[in-house]
Specification:
Dna Ligase, domain 1; 11 helices; 18 strands; Nucleotidyltransferase, domain 5; 413 residues
Length: 413
């Protein structure tokens, strides 16, 4: 059986998702496991032992369901250490036929990759955006074209080596060899965004527990990536501090049950109740008061995300609008607040856009976008001849071929 595994080591939970691939192109979830994790802060591993424990729990749950051992996975990474830039490179085509080969494409990419890198950083992704062949711009694939000069524009994502080492170590100590480390918003974009949105220009904001990750697409390809080191768990911590709830769990419960990101959506007479710190007595407060605290933090997150988007798109206004995902996007009023902050751009919230066979509606949860995207990324790297023949679901076949074409040419070297 050919299968790929996505391992999302998130700030609130680890998710391990094993997907079976078939020659017909269908995809089916054969194993999944989710384990709460407190070892990751703001997207980066801070407690290796706790993170390894959570990875093991998620992995074992996925293995029990799948009935086979999981030994490798596509592992997500994010955090403030991630930086990205668009870089250009150019080469002369010197072979006798003057026909561009795969080798020329790789040589062009090598020149684009010559960005100045401090010793503690490394290139995580070098993604071709488009090529220019003898001055003719916007070529998607120049192979076999006759030319004397090939130029490339590439999106280069770099990361702190120590952070990557820690992510690798957590997977390895739990018995999983990382097939590749993948930037989380890139993975999530595979699961959530449509090709039409990417063509028009779109920004994805994945509001997780510890970070809000941003990916901007333009003309069908990735143009910008950024990481905001604040997420939805900071909202929970604010509630805990401001209202002195009995515990952080009680603050989370209050947020999930009564939380709203926009004060306009809350009535004057609405109340929320919770257990107070020390006494554990029940207390009631106006929901407007709770919303004020939540809105302040959600505004901060979305404004910082807008700043990241503005680095790539003038006025922060991609024509295809904004797509929110991640568990934090489920908070009531978040889409409405985002519309305000993004100057009335179209905003939608979504999880993975296609239901995976064998996983039901759970696969649509926005908290799973990264895990599903990591598995899709892995699926796009597998050669079809390694897949087994089996037809299950036409919709999945479509997604798998979409995934494969979206990631064609993503290999750096
Ligand atoms: N129904 C809901 N309403 C409001 N918030 C929610 C809901 N479900 C989940 N959340 C919030 O989403 C956050 C977790 O999101 P997610 O699972 O995407 O994070 P993560 O992947 O673990 O973290 P990160 O991506 O930052 O590393 C938590 O703060 C949680 O409170
Ligand atoms: Mg996440």
């Amino acid at each position: 059986m050919a299968y790929v595994v996505g391992l999302d080591i998130g700030s609130t939970k680890v998710c391990c998702l094993a997907i079976e691939l078939t020659a017909s192109g269908s995809l089916r979830v054969v194993g999944h496991g989710i384990a709460p994790c407190k070892g990751v802060r703001r997207g980066t591993v801070e407690d290796i032992d706790e993170t390894v424990r959570a990875v093991r729990v998620a992995k074992e749950a996925a293995e029990t369901m799948a009935g086979f051992a999981i030994d490798s996975a596509y592992v997500g990474v994010t955090g403030e250490h991630i930086l990205s830039t668009n870089s250009k490179g150019a080469i002369a085509i010197s072979n006798v036929t003057r026909e561009i080969t795969e080798g020329d494409k790789n040589r062009a990419m090598q020149t684009a990759k010559q960005v100045v890198l401090p010793p503690d950083r490394e290139i995580l992704h070098a993604i071709p955006r488009h090529y220019t062949v003898d001055g003719h711009k916007g070529v998607a694939n120049p192979v076999n074209m006759a030319a004397s000069r090939l130029e490339i524009e590439a999106h280069i994502v770099t990361a702190g080596s120590a952070f990557l080492r820690n992510a690798r170590r957590c997977a390895e100590r739990a018995g999983i060899a990382p097939a590749e480390l993948v930037l989380e918003p890139l993975a999530a974009s595979m699961a959530v965004l449509t090709p039409e949105e990417k063509e028009a220009g779109v920004a994805l904001i994945d509001i997780g527990g510890g970070t809000a990750d941003v990916a901007v697409f333009h003309d069908g390809s990735i143009f910008g990536t950024g990481v905001v080191p604040v997420g939805a768990h900071h909202v929970t911590k604010d509630i805990y501090m401001m209202f002195r709830t009995a515990s952080i769990e009680e603050a989370e419960r209050l947020k999930l049950q009564s939380g709203c990101a926009l004060i306009d959506l809350v009535g004057e007479d609405e109340v929320a109740s919770y257990e107070e710190m020390s006494s554990n007595a029940k207390r009631s407060i106006p929901k407007k008061l709770l919303t004020e605290v939540i809105q302040a933090r959600m505004e901060e997150i979305l404004e910082l995300a807008r700043d990241e988007i503005r680095k790539s798109v003038r006025n922060g206004a991609p024509a295809g609008g904004i797509v929110l995902t991640g568990g934090g996007s489920l908070l009531k009023g978040t889409v409405e607040l985002a519309r305000k902050i993004m100057n009335d751009l179209p905003v939608r919230a979504s999880g993975p856009s296609v239901a995976l066979d064998g996983y039901g509606d759970r696969a649509r949860h926005p908290g799973l976008s990264t895990a599903v995207g990591l598995a899709l990324y892995g699926a796009s790297k597998l050669r079809p001849e390694e897949a087994v023949v089996e037809v299950r679901d036409g919709a999945l076949a479509k997604m798998w071929s979409k995934a494969a074409s979206a990631f064609k040419g993503w290999k750096e070297d």
